[in-house]
Amino acid sequence: MRRLAIDVREALSTHPTGKARWTRCFVDELLTRELPLTLLSHQPLPAAWQRPSVQSVVLPAGLRWHFSAAQWLTAHRKDITSFSPTSFIVPFMIGGNVPVIPLVHDLIAFRGEPHQKKAQIIERLTLRRALSAACHVCAISEATRHDLLNRYRFLPEENVSVIFAGPYRASAPLATPDGRTILSIGTLCPRKNQLRLIQAFALLPEALRQRTQLVIAGGRGWSDREIIRSARETPGVTWRGYVSDAEYEELLSHATVFALPSLYEGFGMPVLDALQRGVPVLTSRRGSLSEVAGDAALFADPEDSADLSRGLQTLLTDDSLRARLRTLGPQQANTFSWKRTVDLFLSGVQGCL
């Protein structure tokens, strides 16, 4: 069996976001399978990942990392398969020489919504070659798989597997709602749609708005100045910035409503975490969100602040709906797990190992 080499740089970040959290949870579960792994990074592995079956390869940080990783993988190509869960640069460089499995989270870089320019340029330059040279391709959701097959018609359908994600915690207690907090978690950017969410909050009836707060948690992203200005100037809205794992858990454990009305998502892990805790969710049907939330959330038009506001008002005032979603949410979340993700991954890529 070939060793599976994984780029884990982002998973070791001190401020992990979506892709980093996905990689961290994936590796945690994969380690339970006792497979021969090589974990490539720019820093030492955490103690929990240091095992007899794990080889650690530490390479120079920065731009040099990609060239060093490509060189190392090529030198060991006879017994290595490379899995790249966060970047297409190394697959772009080594494709055809080394068996490569890229994971595609989304195709945001190819859509009309504003996106981080550097990431957009890199993905547009590297993705096609990374896919064409891959021995197998993984997608994080059915929505992403659909987008991939529509855009890259050369991909055989049987060569693209959906592997999903799981809740950040394997289990979590039901939330104890405080009766006043609308929570939204995500990097500040136009795609996450925090600006319209703030506008929707401001449109709530005054009496309801006076006894409610909107808490936005997430680090700065791109094109976010107007979001920050609006958050600071709108009464009842608080921007917490990036939050630690402990703060993330604390916020979810007391939220009354969770709102993520994104314009597009490849998956939407915070939605899954809210569902797991029985927090009623307001979201959109864009990208993968309806696939993740199923029938356990309330949906609204993400480009209509008034519709978002009506959704917030419904969740805040309809006790029976909140009770129903509190039951349905954990049931829906239980259909996803990291065990399932790793099982699907290993099943899909067995011909590459």
From TrEMBL:
Domain Glycosyltransferase subfamily 4-like N-terminal: from-to ranges: 59-164
Species this protein is from: Candidatus Peribacter riflensis
GO MF terms held by the record: glycosyltransferase activity
InterPro entries associated with the record: Glyco_trans_1, Glyco_trans_4-like_N
Record's keyword terms, sorted: Transferase
Name this polypeptide is given: AprM
CDD domains, alphabetized: GT4_MtfB-like
Residues annotated as domain Glycosyl transferase family: 178-327
GO biological process: lipopolysaccharide biosynthetic process
Pfam families in the cross-refs: Glyco_transf_4 (PF13439), Glycos_transf_1 (PF00534)
